[in-house]
Each structure stands twice: as structure tokens, then as C-alpha cells.
Amino acid sequence: MLAPQRQQIILSLIEDRGTVRTIDLAEEFSVTDETIRRDLQALEGSQQLTRVHGGASSLTGRPRLQSFNERQNLNVAGKTAIAQAALAHVQAGHTYAFDSSTTAFALVSRLPDLPYRVLTNSFAVLEHVTRMTEVEVISVGGRYHPKTHTFVGNETIDVLRRHNVHTAFISCIGYNPRRGASEGFEEQATFKMRLVQFAENVVLLMDSSKLNERSEYFFADPAEITEIITDSSADPAVVQRIRNLGHRVTIAPDSTGALPDGKL
């Protein structure tokens, strides 16, 4: 692969991830660390990235905000398994809140049509649930953000405050075992923070790529999360670390119904 082609791919990776490490890039491209350092130096010279210790970051230091449709195509198998496992929490007579994450939507798309209440700031969730006959649907309102299919703003918080939410199903961009769940979109993080405060139970639906990661805005401490549901590709050492801190983690079986050795 020629250097210009490799550098364009590096820029795409930085756009998606916010930051990259030299050693990881060298492994991905099967080249030496020194080759990657030269690439990063050239890209910094053309003001397309910022070099940091051990790697590089975007000029803002943050990943690009991905659209709902882009996120929906990521880690599909993991999200499907997580959604299937989370169905055990849903029963008639309760109020459930869903954020605008694609992992939460994977659960919504499998919900049974029963007499319970659904509260959400997600356009996709609203569009799906309004087709159901037994479910009562509540939109939190607010200003519509088209890229994320999300309603945001102070109006959403006012609506949250008025309802008794039995369980909130949320996701995140990253989860740090000590600091908790984080988001890259400030208004979304604010909504989730208040939802976590108001809900009786909080179930974090999180595919394994987000474990031991962090983003710009923390919105929930580990102690505020009732249960984490992740997929069977989760690093056992990270899962055990979270459990050792006293937090509940459920590993969703894969499509065959099996769990890898050593994962419960």
C-alpha cells in the first residue's frame, strides 16, 4: 500500500475514533512503528491531525458524530444478542424509557406488544412503537437533531421529571470501570444523566467494543447502573474487573445460544 493511500485510511480511522495509537496502526497496516510515525508527521504537517504521545488525534480531539444509520450498521451481532437478553426485563404494567442509541433500538424492535408505557427521545423508537396497539407511547419532545434522530433540549428534561420510570434502557460510547458511562454528544449526555437520576433501574446495553473506553462527557457513575448487558466478545479480564468493583454484568449468549469458556 502506498503512503498516500495509507494516510487517507488513517485519517478515516481518526475521524471515527477520535484518537489512534501508533502501535495499533502499525499492526493494522502490517508496517513498522517508524513508518506510521512518518505518516503521522506528514499529516500533522498538512494540519490534518494532531500528534500526541504514542499516536495522534483529530484536530478537535473528538470523534466525528456518527449518524443513526451509520451506527446501526456497527456490531450488529453483538447488539442483537444484547437486545435478546434484555427482553427478560420487559413485562406489562411498567414504564420503560429508551435513549436514541441503536443498541436500545435493537431491543425496541423486538418488544412484545403488551400494555406498558414507552418513553423516549428517539425518533426511530417513536416511529416503531406507534405501530403497536397495546403500548402507550410518550415523546419527551424538544428540538429534533436530524443526524442522531434525537430530540434534545430542556423540554425533554421537564417531561422526564414528571414520569415514574421503572427501567431505563440506555447505551454509551464508552464505559470506564471506575468512572462509568460516557457520551460524545453533550446534549445527549445531559438527557441520559437526568434519565439515570429519575429511573428506578438503569440497564446499560453496551456491545463489547465500548468496554474500557471513554468519551467526552460522563453521564452515569458505575454505582448508578443497575446492570450492564454486553456480548460474548467482551474481554473476560475487563468484565471481571467490573464485577470485582461490585457491579452486575450479564453476558448475552451469541446466536447459537452458547457462551465462550469462562464467561457467565
Word description of this protein:
- This protein is of the alpha/beta class.
- It has 2 domains: 3-57, Arc Repressor Mutant, subunit A; 68-252, 3-Layer(aba) Sandwich (Rossmann fold), CATH 3.40.50.
- It has 10 helices and 15 strands.
- It has helices spanning 3-17, 22-29, 33-45, 68-72, 76-86, 102-108, 123-129, 154-161, 186-198, 236-244, and strands spanning 19-21, 50-52, 55-57, 95-98, 117-120, 136-139, 143-145, 150-152, 167-170, 174-176, 180-183, 201-205, 217-220, 227-231, 249-252.
- The strands form 4 sheets. It has a 7-stranded parallel beta sheet, with helices on both faces.
Summarize this entry quickly:
The chain is of the alpha/beta class. The protein has helices at 3-17, 22-29, 33-45, 68-72, 76-86, 102-108, 123-129, 154-161, 186-198, 236-244, and strands at 19-21, 50-52, 55-57, 95-98, 117-120, 136-139, 143-145, 150-152, 167-170, 174-176, 180-183, 201-205, 217-220, 227-231, 249-252.
